[in-house]
Design a protein that fits this description.
Blueprint (H helix, E strand, L loop, with lengths): L3 E5 L3 H12 L3 E6 L2 H7 L5 E4 L5 H6 L7 E4 L5 H13 L4 E5 L3 H10 L3 E3 L1 H14 L3 E6 L4 E7 L9 H4 L1 H5 L2 E7 L2 E3 L13 E7 H10 L6
Parallel strand pairs: 1-2, 1-4, 2-3, 4-5, 5-6
Antiparallel strand pairs: 7-8, 8-11, 9-10, 9-11
């Protein structure tokens, strides 16, 4: 059974999150002050409402206590983001995730009660730098300061072998969470899947351990 989400701010991040959550069979309420954005997303979410969240009465009418998670994707107005965060905290929303363009902005929202702060511009910069500087890396997602999820293209010495045989976990202390093949993603019975040329392996681990795999298997930096 899906969860219920409210997404404040239907810009690039907010619209992407809202549509994806809805496509994954969750209930999604999208809120934005811009009526054109609401019209654009209305068919891709459960409900879309044009509203000025600086109006306390509007926030009260949204029934925030009924949502499992709030995503505050308002990057242009700190005042609006603050109002949305405070209202969600007061309504005891179990998970409040807020977007912030700067660390200072994020620190304010965190102090007010947001459970998680995301920095789209910073995170994208890290992912881009990783992908440009490391051969064989298709993509990188920073989970915390020292841990990440990384996608490596299968090297020649991995082809024809299984994940179990390569023993990434025991040798490098990392977990294989999926194998990307063509347009699909293999997530079940990964250990005994025979790797093919063109596959990519998605690992989770510390930055230090992920670099050890890179070094061991000749995926050298430029």
């Amino acid at each position: 059974m899906g969860k219920s989400f409210i997404v404040f701010g239907i810009g690039r991040l907010g619209s992407t999150v809202a549509k994806k959550l809805y496509a994954m069979h969750n209930d999604v309420l999208a809120v934005d002050v811009n009526i054109e954005k609401i019209k654009t997303i209305s068919e891709d979410v459960t409900t879309a409402i044009q509203a000025d969240i600086m109006d306390a009465d509007v926030l009260e009418d949204l029934g925030l206590s009924n949502f499992d998670c709030a995503v505050i994707a308002i990057g242009s107005s700190l005042e609006s983001a603050i109002m949305a965060t405070i209202s969600c905290v007061e309504a005891d929303v179990p998970m409040i995730i807020a977007k912030a363009p700067t660390r200072r902005y994020g620190a304010i929202l965190k102090r007010l009660g947001a459970h998680k702060i995301i920095y789209p511009e910073v995170d994208m910069g890290v992912r881009l730098a990783k992908s440009l500087s490391d051969n064989g890396i298709s993509d990188y997602f920073e989970i915390s300061e020292n841990y990440g999820v990384i996608e490596y293209e299968v090297t020649e010495d991995w082809v024809g072998k299984t994940v179990r045989l390569l023993a990434f976990r025991s040798h490098f202390h990392v977990n294989v969470i999926a194998i990307r093949r063509d347009e699909g993603l293999i997530v079940h019975n990964i250990a005994d899947e025979i790797l093919q040329k063109g596959d990519a392996i998605i690992f989770f681990g510390s930055d230090e351990d992920l670099k050890e795999i890179q070094k061991e298997h000749g995926i050298e930096k430029n």
